[in-house]
Amino acid sequence: MNKREIISTTIVIIIGLMLLNCIIWLYNLAFPSTEVIHHLNKNIYYYLAVISSLFFLLGILMEWKSVLAILSNKIEINKFLLIVSILLLFVSLIPVAKWYIWFNFNLISLGWFIDVFKNEYTRNIIPIIAGIIFIRSFANSN
Fold first, then answer.
1. 85 with 122: CB under 8 angstroms?
2. Please, are residues 134 and 85 in contact by the beta-carbon 8 Å criterion?
């Protein structure tokens, strides 16, 4: 590794840690402890949307070398991957409680599919995957 690669990798790691710290800070605002119960009047869906957006940016950051290649070269857009990434991002913006309301626990036909969106932890991975797919939808035309 040369000096430039070390510096750029270090910058990407620092940005990634800053994104993760912002996510943790927003989670603490969205889900306050019992000592700060007076903050519960805040709109929790706003915080969850911002958190999903930050996870999306984290997915884009994971493909940082592709981002640099896209910015420096002519690109071709894979429309299918672009649509999939946007749909995944929008699905990740739907709160977990809505999935429980729309699809109750006894749904057998699509239960394996819907359960992914009902779990808060797996739902947070979806915007990361959406960010990676979003960057991969822009292929270099070289």
1. no
2. yes
Digitized pLDDT (tens) for each residue of the chain, 142 residues in all? 788 889 988 999 999 999 999 988 888 877 766 444 445 445 777 888 888 999 999 999 999 989 988 888 878 899 999 999 999 999 888 877 777 777 665 555 556 666 777 777 788 899 999 999 999 999 765 5
Q: Residue 1 corresponds to which tokens in the numbers above?
A: 């590794």
CA distance 2 to 7: 9
Going from the C-alpha of 138 to that of each of 33, 37, 80, 115, the distances in angstroms are 42, 45, 11, 30
The CA distance from 53 to 93, in Å, is 8
Q: Which residue has the tokens 């995957």?
A: 129
User: What are the tokens at 124?
Assistant: 């947070």
Dist CA 117 CA 79 (whole Å): 24
Strand 75-77 and strand 138-140: the pairing is antiparallel
Measure the CA–CA gap between 84 and 82, rounded to whole angstroms.
5
The C-alpha R_g of the chain, in whole angstroms, comes to: 18
Which pTM value belongs to this model? 0.80
